[in-house]
């Protein structure tokens, strides 16, 4: 099965590198990329063929669209003549609906919408997938296997996609923001930056492993850290006073709303 990736920026390269690590033959992969310098970089790094979007679409069994939402309409119009019924078209773009894609491609093209995230670069990705209206189980399974090469995949109804985008698609950025803030706090408290960084990163990795391996609710895990009258309780009171929980809710609502706006082309 050959796969074309159209748009090889951050997420396109993440998918490409994951497929290569998962053992997909490079001669079964193709890339369509507008920026010539970027195309050369990928050819050198992976030995992958960078061809025109139309050639990639005509030759591939599966086409993955990894361009910005604002570029989707133009790319769909460009490749539509080369798409055929039964071919799998996977979109990783935030906001863009399967109905929008189906309205711009030939009848019968199987469209799957995916929301991945960047931890896919280290095979710890979280991807959600939703079928369009011409997908059968084999198409969905193929999209699932494409994304499973870089992490975990779940199937969701498309109406949940904007919320998923706000939580796991953008999610790594919130975590990195928290990490950055904790490192700065450590420096403020007098720790060398390298010590603060090591402490915070391992605390994050350890906490994530506890969540995954114990399956215990985060509230219980937090209570286990919070000794009565101790340091953690003092810190958590400050987070509540500064409305950090409300800020997270507002942030993710804003991301969900932005995903909806992207669907409308703004
Ligand atoms: N970066 C992330 O964490 C995530 C990104 N996404 C989605 O992935 C898509 C790409 O995002 P990024 O990789 O962050 O953006 P990016 O800007 O790094 O990559 C987009 C790439 O598409 C190329 N491109 C633009 N027009 C093209 C055309 N007509 N033909 C061929 N290539 C073209 C650009 O040159 C660029 O290399 C977006 O739709 C975004 O919503 C989804 C989940 C996470
Ligand atoms: O910021 C964005 O729009 C993309 C989609 C999810 C993560 N990055």
TrEMBL record:
Question: What chemistry does it catalyse, as a reaction equation?
Answer: L-proline + NADP(+) = (S)-1-pyrroline-5-carboxylate + NADPH + 2 H(+); L-proline + NAD(+) = (S)-1-pyrroline-5-carboxylate + NADH + 2 H(+)
UniProt subcellular location: Cytoplasm
Enumerate the Gene3D superfamilies for this protein: NAD(P)-binding Rossmann-like Domain (3.40.50.720), ProC C-terminal domain-like (1.10.3730.10)
One Pfam family name from the record?
P5CR_dimer
EC number annotated for this UniProt entry: 1.5.1.2
The entry lists its GO molecular-function terms as: pyrroline-5-carboxylate reductase activity
Q: Where in the numbering of this chain does the Pyrroline-5-carboxylate reductase dimerisation domain appear?
A: 158-262
- Keywords of this entry: Amino-acid biosynthesis, Cytoplasm, NADP, Oxidoreductase, Proline biosynthesis
In terms of PROSITE patterns, this protein maps to: P5CR (PS00521)
Q: In which pathway does it act?
A: Amino-acid biosynthesis; L-proline biosynthesis; L-proline from L-glutamate 5-semialdehyde: step 1/1
Q: Where is the Pyrroline-5-carboxylate reductase catalytic N-terminal domain?
A: 4-95
Family, similarity comment: Belongs to the pyrroline-5-carboxylate reductase family.
Functional description taken from the UniProt entry = Catalyzes the reduction of 1-pyrroline-5-carboxylate (PCA) to L-proline.
Q: What is this protein identified as?
A: Pyrroline-5-carboxylate reductase
């Amino acid at each position: 099965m050959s796969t074309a990736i159209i748009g090889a920026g951050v997420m396109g390269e993440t998918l490409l590198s994951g497929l290569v690590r998962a053992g997909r033959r490079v001669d079964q992969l193709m890339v369509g990329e507008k920026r010539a310098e970027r195309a050369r970089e990928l050819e050198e790094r992976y030995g992958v063929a960078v061809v025109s979007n139309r050639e990639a679409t005509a030759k591939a069994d599966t086409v993955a669209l990894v361009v910005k939402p604002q570029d989707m309409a133009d790319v769909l119009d460009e490749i539509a003549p080369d798409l055929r019924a039964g071919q799998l078209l996977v979109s990783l773009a935030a906001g863009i609906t399967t109905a929008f894609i189906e309205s711009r491609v030939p009848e019968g093209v199987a469209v799957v919408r995916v929301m991945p995230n960047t931890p896919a670069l280290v095979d710890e990705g979280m991807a959600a997938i939703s079928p369009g209206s011409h997908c059968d189980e084999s198409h969905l399974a193929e999209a699932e296997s494409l994304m499973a090469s870089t992490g975990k995949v779940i199937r969701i109804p498309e109406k949940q996609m904007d919320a998923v985008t706000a939580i796991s698609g953008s999610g790594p950025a919130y975590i990195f923001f928290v990490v950055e803030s904790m490192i700065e706090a450590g420096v403020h408290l007098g720790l060398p930056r390298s010590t603060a960084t090591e402490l915070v990163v391992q605390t994050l990795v350890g906490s994530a492993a506890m969540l995954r391996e114990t399956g215990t609710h985060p509230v219980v895990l937090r209570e286990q850290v919070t000794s009565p009258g101790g340091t953690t309780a003092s810190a958590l009171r400050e987070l509540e006073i500064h409305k950090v929980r409300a800020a997270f809710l507002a942030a993710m609502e804003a991301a969900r709303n932005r995903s909806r706006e992207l669907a409308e082309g703004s």
